[in-house]
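FORM 12-B: Structure-to-Sequence Request
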């Protein structure tokens, strides 16, 4: 490196060879960032994971892959049940389970709600249609008519009931590794960083959109999940006193921590009922219990 002095001070001028080496190193770094999704610049909000559109524009824009990342583990940390946490996934589940024709018919009026942010590769083409999805140990009996109304193909939805968290984690891992499920959703109360790491690796192997619901009390625990969000209710200041679903993104690989609010009106379409639909009487509970289960093992 050459140096030259002047009346204003010392100026450092890199030589041609040093500039050439710097350019070569920058090129190698760019190639590494393109081929290794687990690496990214700290200032960037972007990754190259393929993604499933969430169906909520503000959430797509907040996620570095432009939707639910495929080949990654997502943790949704619930402050309470029955606040629309499953409705949050319904557009994505409809996206992967519907066949090409039915998706084409249903998406014609919903193009504004999907979308893709600047990062990732959105799986918005027909090659990702007609796939299988699975629920592992849902805390309540899924209501088939509501799922069907949301466009979820019930013929491609498997429900696995388990007796404990260990069985849930084992079954979830097997489904992820199988490579035949586009989406796997599990519910657990207790797990560990090591077990979550196994799910993350299984999602990568099976190229699956993997989601685990956990209690919000686990938000301070270490987890290798690529995306972690605390899900709760909030009175959003910009919408009078109406309750909104609050998504507090506390970890996002390739992204930033932020909070996203979803208006209740956005839930009405995928859920097929006014949101939130929480059982408040024995009659409602009996109606849900009596509903047909889609698949059970």
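FORM 12-B RESPONSE
SEQUENCE OUT:
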């Amino acid at each position: 490196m050459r140096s030259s002095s002047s009346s204003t001070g010392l100026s450092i001028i890199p030589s041609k060879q040093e500039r050439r080496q710097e350019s070569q190193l920058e090129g190698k770094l760019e190639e590494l960032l393109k081929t290794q999704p687990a690496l990214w610049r700290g200032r960037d909000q972007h990754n190259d994971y393929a993604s499933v559109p969430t169906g909520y524009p503000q959430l797509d824009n907040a996620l570095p892959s432009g939707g639910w990342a495929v080949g990654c583990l997502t943790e949704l940390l619930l402050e309470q049940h029955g606040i629309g946490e499953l409705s949050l996934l319904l557009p994505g589940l409809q996206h992967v389970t519907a066949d090409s024709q039915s998706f084409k018919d249903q998406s014609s009026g919903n193009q504004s709600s999907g979308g893709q942010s600047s990062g990732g590769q959105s799986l918005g083409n027909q090659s990702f249609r007609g796939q299988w999805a699975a629920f592992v140990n849902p805390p309540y009996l899924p209501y088939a008519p509501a799922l069907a109304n949301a466009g979820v193909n019930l013929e491609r939805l498997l429900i696995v009931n388990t007796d404990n968290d260990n069985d849930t984690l084992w079954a979830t891992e097997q489904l992820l590794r199988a490579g035949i499920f586009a989406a796997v959703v599990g519910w657990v109360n207790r797990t560990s960083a090591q077990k979550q790491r196994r799910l993350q690796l299984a999602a990568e192997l099976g190229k699956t959109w993997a989601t685990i619901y956990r209690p919000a009390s686990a938000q301070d625990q270490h987890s290798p999940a690529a995306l972690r969000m605390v899900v709760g209710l909030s009175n959003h200041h910009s919408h009078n006193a109406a309750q909104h679903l609050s998504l507090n993104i506390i970890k996002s690989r390739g992204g930033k921590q932020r909070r996203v609010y979803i208006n209740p009106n956005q839930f009405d379409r995928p859920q097929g009922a006014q949101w939130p639909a929480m059982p408040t009487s024995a009659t409602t509970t009996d109606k849900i219990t009596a509903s047909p289960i889609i698949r059970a093992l």
